[in-house]
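Researcher: Going back to the complex we discussed earlier. I've cleaned up the inputs and rechecked each line, so this should be the final set. Can you rerun the prediction on the complete assembly and write out the structure?
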Amino acid sequence: EQRTPVLELAGVRAGYGAIQALHGVDLVVHPGSVVALLGPNGGGKSTTMKVCTGLLPLNGGELRLAGRRVNGLSAQEIAKLGVCAIPEGRGVFPNLTVRENLWIATGTGTDLKKLEAVAYDRFPILGKRRNQLAGSMSGGEQQMLALSRALATDPAVLLLDELSMGLAPMIVTQMYETVAELVAGGLSVLVAEQFARVVLPIADTAALMLHGRIVDTGTPDEIEGRLSSEYLGG
Ligand code: ATP
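Model: Rerun complete. Updated structure for the full complex:
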């Protein structure tokens, strides 16, 4: 017996004006699992993420959250239903300190002290840098901050787009180890990565996307065996 997926795309079509970018995308994220969305630049990974956050409307198919059809809901409404994205480029405020960035994430009801304690316990370096401007930190530290901010919202599903971009391989490994720990604690994650090798170790399912279509889906082992080296990355 399967529990209801936290996130589901069924035959999703979407695009930009006359440009159709997604041609019927099917994807399922089960609770407490990691789905890796792989494929080259321009394949449609970011567009898929935008559809999941409500930033881009569907023009076909269905988007479902916890079994509920949410086509047409605003990005704000979808965020309220627990979809939280760390966009490409991380989305931290460079001219605010680490604390201020966390404070912004608290919204109403969450207490900053508690939030800081959780963030600094997970990433001690953020504690050391609490009064430093986020923009002055390394890419890896900013990614830790972005992840801490996202987790503050206690998301039903976390969307990560090219988490590895611009980061040293060791930092990427560390970030994905953290994600794996969070998943072991029940978090559900959809992660888009151009290079499979960094994310396959923590994925439950992998899907290869080309020209706006999922062309292959399987376990990480199956997909790794079928991927050409250009999609695996160094
Ligand atoms: P990347 O790694 O570059 O983010 P991707 O797999 O995420 O690649 P998308 O960014 O989703 O790919 O792009 C899918 C298609 O949609 C591409 O053909 C791209 O040119 C097109 N596209 C993306 N954004 C826009 C936009 N704002 N306006 C018009 N076309 C766009």
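Model: Worth noting: Residues 169-184 form the longest helix (16 residues).
Researcher: Good, that matches what I expected from the previous run.
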